[in-house]
Design brief:
284 residues, alpha/beta, 6 helices
Length: 284
């Protein structure tokens, strides 16, 4: 299922969905109570339903520049053992959908993980004859050095599981480049540090022919955080820093032509940030 294509100068960004659902986000944003969301009219109808339940999505975003193709974040993945039941041993048509959108795995030049949480690394690998193999055999996988070193040192079973089935197999295959949080991938695509959700979290900046766009990653999970930048997500490693990051990014890009493409935003996924009183709203 592919829903969404955007042009930023000579660059195309294509969205390929793994899971899109209503409900399920409230544990991630505990402050986003239904009765509060119902009072934010611009969230309707795309980002909350009539009863105030949040809509969300897990998708990959494929950046195609004149000289390379980059997959940003690789969702949950199939066949993975996960503690979260809806994500456990998932079987989706994601790879077929990626191919149908024109992006066969062997033509991908880079796989970029904004951070190394479970729903951003899953399709780094796939199960072949009982072994985890790189899904994108010709790609260099770009991961933040700070991010990699942090999660690789965490002695928690669920984290070790994610690392061992979705991160370390590509690292051990020699396909990983550990990069800094301000790394420049090519003329049109670079990273900006947006830490707080995780220690080395990055947002992807796209600049071409005077146009600009960004792929957020998880410094924001849901558009309601534009209206309430103070709302942090339960998985944030450093909630205070995450709040500072949101305020800094929002104030920098509000009322500019920057196209904001949300990594977990439901269809239509992208829009422009506008000042709205003391806070912000997304125009789609």
């Amino acid at each position: 299922m592919h829903q969404g294509k955007w042009k930023i100068g000579e660059v195309t960004v294509t969205r390929v969905v793994e899971i899109e659902a209503t409900g399920g986000m409230s544990p991630i944003l505990p402050d986003a109570k239904r009765e509060i969301l119902k009072e934010i009219p611009w969230l309707y109808p795309h980002f909350v339903d009539e009863s105030g339940r949040m809509r969300g999505s897990i998708h990959a975003l494929i950046i195609e520049t004149p000289d390379r193709t980059i997959v940003v974040d690789t969702c949950v993945g199939n066949d993975k053992e996960r503690g979260n039941p809806p994500w456990n041993q998932l079987q989706t048509t994601f790879l077929a959908d990626l191919e149908a959108a024109g992006y066969a795995p062997d033509r991908i030049d880079n796989v970029l993980c904004t951070h190394l949480h479970v729903d951003h690394v899953g399709w780094n690998t796939m199960l072949v004859d009982g072994k985890w193999q790189p899904t994108f055999p010709n790609a260099r996988y770009l991961m933040g050095r700070v991010e990699f070193e942090h999660w690789n040192a965490v002695d928690v079973d669920s984290t070790k599981q994610i690392m061992s089935d979705s991160v370390l197999p590509v690292f051990d295959a020699g396909l990983v480049d550990l990069v800094e949080t301000d790394h420049k991938i090519c003329d049109e695509v670079s990273l900006i540090p947006t830490v707080g959700h995780s220690p080395g979290h990055v947002t992807v900046l796209i600049q071409s022919q005077g146009e600009e766009g960004m792929i957020t990653g998880d410094f924001i999970h849901h558009p309601c955080q534009f209206a309430h930048p103070e709302w942090s997500a339960s998985p944030d490693t450093d909630p205070e820093q995450a709040r500072r990051t949101r305020h800094e990014v929002f104030s920098r890009y509000a009322d500019t032509p920057m196209l904001i493409i949300g990594t977990h935003f439901a269809t239509p996924t992208a829009g422009h940030l506008k000042r709205d009183g003391d806070a912000y709203r997304l125009d789609v």
